[in-house]
Amino acid sequence: MGDPLTECHSRLEQQEKEIKRLSAEIESIKNPKNLDPTARLDELREENAKLKYRLNILKRSLQESPPSSLTPLSDSKAMLNINQRLQQIFGRAISAAYPEIEGPPVAVTPTNQAKFGDYQCNSVMAMYQMLKAKGAKVNPVEIAEKVVKNLPDNELIEKTEIARQGFINIHLKRSFVSQLLSKLLVNGVQPPPLSKKKKVVVDFSSPNIAKEMHVGHLRSTIIGDSMCRLFEFLGYEVLRLNHVGDWGTQFGMLIAHLQDKFPDYLTTSPPISDLQAFYKESKKRFDEEEDFKKRAYQCVVRLQSKEPDFIKAWNLICDVSRREFQRVYDCLDIKLIERGESYYQEMMTEVVKEFEERGFVELDEGRKIVFATGHSVPLTVVKSDGGYTYDTSDLAAIRNRLFDEKADIIIYVTDSGQASHFQLIFAAAQMIGWYDPKVTRVEHAGFGVVLGEDKKKFKTRSGDTVRLMDLLEEGLKRSMDKLKDKERDKMLSPEELEKAQKAVAFGCIKYADLSHNRINDYIFSFDKMLDDRGNTAAYLLYAFTRIRSISRLANIDEATLRKAAETTEVLLDHEKEWKLGKCILRFPEVLQKITDDLLLHTLCDYLYELATTFTEFYDSCYCVEKDRKTGEVIKVNMWRMLLCDAAAVMAKGFDILGITPVSRM
Ligand code: ARG
Description:
Helices cover 55% and strands 10% of the residues. By secondary structure, the chain is of the alpha/beta class.
């Protein structure tokens, strides 16, 4: 296994070469519109930007750990990131042992088998390659030995073993792990300290007014909300923006149609219950009636010049859509601030001016276009009819977020189909000097499409797009069926049953989305997501209620548990206790990873592992011992109760995913 830093470096190098080669190829091709190499070039550039970003993270983590002495552990209430601490320790050891290696690779991972210890350092192979390239005569085991000899004094390593090919197995000190668990129990799940309050803008959900809010928007809504929750937990100031499409030319025809169908719309609100149908009717007229088309164009102009009656009509239409969207957001408990394209209207004018003044604008058949450095496809900032585009509004939006909102991080959550649009926007914003990617993190977090169980685009049986409210309602129905199958309706009160129904339905829909790597397409299947075996929210919710019920069944109240957290040592002698304890403490490293790559499925995988590890523990370690005959509690193994309580990290994980656990189901 290669270490990430070297891998990153060499891939970057290879790709830089490929970029040079392709650029040359493009130059030599007479027809510059030849798409193949350009498309590949854009792809490579995007990938390279990602690699560079990753490289910076890795470099930063190295710089934070200069060789020799180890910085003492801070006394913050936060959970310690064991992996990061081990990286520091091994970073020191590696630099001390081999000062001649520049930017030595430091790679530590948890092991997947107990026989390899608890964590593993995988740096030696890469170091061996680097040393060999310098002509040194060494073998991996010797390198590993030298690294181990140089390990600084530290609080958490019990012992190390050198395995084949120089892998270093790390065994953690039980007493230290136990102390970390006690600290967690006393302080609760605390985020790592932030050196400075930072601001994040997350642009997500963002459906289009008067058009269908489709499953793609559902993905964006779920993923974006979870990212917001992550940053909120980490203590960032988060601005949740709904960049709705509310300023397109479609409004011309909608308003023209509204004027015909509901001429008194200025005094009474027209009952457009079905905006979709209304949209279709107006589109039909737009395509078929020449006069209507002309009038529709005039309406756009009059709307954009803010004539009050037109603004009123526009508002009416937006309101109908907004109410629809809100129903979805209410179900899923999503909070958003609507700041649609129209919000940037005036700023767009300024932005175009700024690009013109800086000499970046070219004329092309009446359009105003901008070529961003390194890109062969231009942005269109003004159409030939004088109107603005999706490009213009996004340029205005990014500028506003950088300068007025003063964001440190900006994330756009849309389907991957928009990747090239955002790469152009980011490149143009950098070209004009609005931000430096080394300082501000601006990222498009793309995702794949939602497929039906037939692996084709997600559609209803009749081939229409699926309405989100219908989908959510079906989820509710299916979740209730499932609960009734299990005869939960006989055990739970009607309120509890309803709570469980919603938690399962919406939890499962969210989790099904989040537990897949967002980059990939995913198959929407109610049967799979509601299955309570396997990596599903249904399984996790059950597992969680079981953990929570243990102290209830043993009649231990919160106060007793809190007291015990301060006074009872968390014993980790049993193999399953040890495994569970370590798993619980991996929470901070999982958070670190998802903050870096914004891939939330890592958190889902972790929660699933935690739940199964917990089940193993529960199956082989008694928390409470009861009299076989009377069922009376004879002994409470308090430290095990505490281990159950430490599963609070699971609740925090649910919280970040936007899933609501229930106490009974
Ligand atoms: N309304 C757009 C769509 O439905 C998504 C907007 C995403 N955000 C942005 N700043 N462009 O495709």
